[in-house]
Write a structure and sequence with these properties.
Two copies of one chain form a homodimer. With 280 residues, the first copy, chain A, is an alpha/beta fold. Chain A has two domains: 100 residues, 2-Layer Sandwich (60s Ribosomal Protein L30, Chain: A); 159 residues, SPOUT methyltransferase, trefoil knot domain (Alpha/beta knot). Chain A contains eleven helices and 13 strands. In chain A, helix 5 links the parallel strand 6 and strand 7. In chain A, helix 5 packs parallel to helix 11. Chain A starts with a strand and ends with a strand. Chains A and B meet through helix 5, strand 12, helix 11 and strand 13 of A and helix 5, strand 12, helix 11 and strand 13 of B. Chains A, B: InterPro entries: Alpha/beta_knot_MTases, Ribosomal_eL30-like_sf, rRNA_Methyltransferase, SpoU_MeTrfase, tRNA_m1G_MTases_N. Chains A, B: Keywords: Methyltransferase, Transferase.
């Protein structure tokens, strides 16, 4: 890292950091330049540890030491707090930011190789939900995530942050073909369970048992509100629900449903036995 | 409902709806006037169904029919879209709003009467998390929620919305005494499990089995990030963790942890058998 002090928020070297809360602007800017943003020391270090190449780092002057020890061949921009706030659009106070180069997504075959349990996300729109699902999936031993073509981007800043960096360590890729995508996954040996509160579904545990002990399982989760598309419901091998009480609640939100489903999946082979974790 | 058309966002009759995104202002205003806000037709109907008394309703003119059939002795303010946006601070477009009177919280004894599984939230600060936990707890058959004195308010607009109205149907109350609160719960017959990724904790299922089949269980969840306080960890009967894989994730976020813990609790008595639900 070579340190460069900049005062002017309009300096073109800071262009990667423009208006971080403007979702539409950022989607275009990040796609065009092949970058993603990491926020906070812990997440930045995890991106670097996962082998992503940094384009630059941004810190306020009073936090200049925050990323010490991080070895990288990229500029570190040190800016006054007012400059940071005008540039990114919010108070950076204790924060650190970094822009990283994206990498091409792995092929479906690479992501599925050796995987036993995967999560398949159809058209989720909320980056917070995508990030939280990656964190739960990684923590609960899911092997990979597969995204439908229109699912929200796991490398969007908010998803990265909420995932606590799990988007860097949990392998994932995106299907090219929404319509035929599930047939491709089934062809790769996965028993596909559509999570849905709809009629005609089995309790989750029973549905998982129906996959048989030797087959990989794909847990399909649909968009916030409307759930899975008719096409995906139809092309799944079975439908599963999480048993609900009668207290006028007919479903969980998608991140809670994902956590429960990944947990139940983790119990399938006798359960995870490594380390403990809750809260946070 | 008697319909009143108002154009001026500064009209004092609209004061309940001022700047809904200004959390500090709203906290004072709602506490002082003993009100809470409900947003969206479904949630408004659920508040009314649960017996909360409305103070007023707010709709834009093009949505005047949205709350038809809802019988209430309260004014319905119809406003132009620009008035709504200037008043509440965001685009109301398809939305409906209502202000309801709060009720005194029930006593701890009332909330615990007949309860077998409860969730106890220490100092959560995020209203979205509180709302999501109420939705999961209600859906998964938890009987009541008990809040520490400083836990975020379940009747705050965002919590109400994310809970999909579960804050109206799931009984809850607040402890007066943070320091001695857990002893009070234990005195009422509950085995208290502290969810924590810390060392010395049991896997969740094993910890639940340790409660014995006849005793009520309280699942304790702590603040985002730091988790439970040292005091509550010390006063719990046992510590429990959700078994994690080794993928650099040491814990779930608090709403995911709550969903998994409530799910595991729901399996304790042979499981819920009522209705199915996931996604949404």
């Amino acid at each position: 890292m070579h340190v460069i002090e900049i005062d002017d928020p309009a300096d073109p070297r800071l262009a990667d950091y423009t208006r971080l809360r403007d979702v539409n602007l950022r989607r275009h800017l990040e796609a065009e330049h092949g970058l993603f943003m990491a926020e906070g020391e812990k997440v930045i270090r995890r991106a670097a540890d996962a082998g992503y190449a940094p384009r630059s780092f941004l810190l306020t002057r009073r936090r200049a030491e925050a990323l010490s020890g991080l070895v990288a061949d990229a500029p570190l921009y040190l800016v006054p707090e007012e400059t940071a706030e005008r540039l990114v659009g919010f108070d950076l106070h204790r924060g650190a930011l970094a822009a990283f180069h994206r990498r091409p997504l792995p092929s479906l075959a690479q992501v599925l190789a050796g995987a036993r349990g995967i999560v398949v996300l159809e058209d989720l729109v909320d980056h917070t939900n995508v990030g939280a699902i990656f964190r739960s999936a990684a923590g609960l031993g899911v092997d990979a995530v597969v995204l439908a073509p229109r699912c929200a981007d796991p490398l969007y800043r908010r998803a990265v942050k909420v995932s606590m960096g799990a988007v860097f360590t949990l392998p994932y890729t995106r299907l090219d073909d929404w319509y035929g995508g599930l047939d491709e996954l089934r062809g790769a040996g996965f028993h596909l369970l559509a999570l849905t509160p709809g009629a005609g579904s089995l309790p989750l545990r029973e549905a998982l048992a129906g996959a048989g002990p030797d087959r990989g399982v794909g847990l399909l989760l649909g968009t916030e509100g409307d759930g899975l598309s008719a096409r995906w419901l139809e092309r799944a091998d079975a439908r599963a629900h999480i048993p609900m009480s009668d207290r006028d609640v007919d479903s969980l939100n998608v991140t809670a449903a994902a956590a429960v489903a990944c947990y139940e999946l983790s119990l399938r082979g006798g359960g995870l036995v490594h380390r403990g974790g809750t809260g946070g």
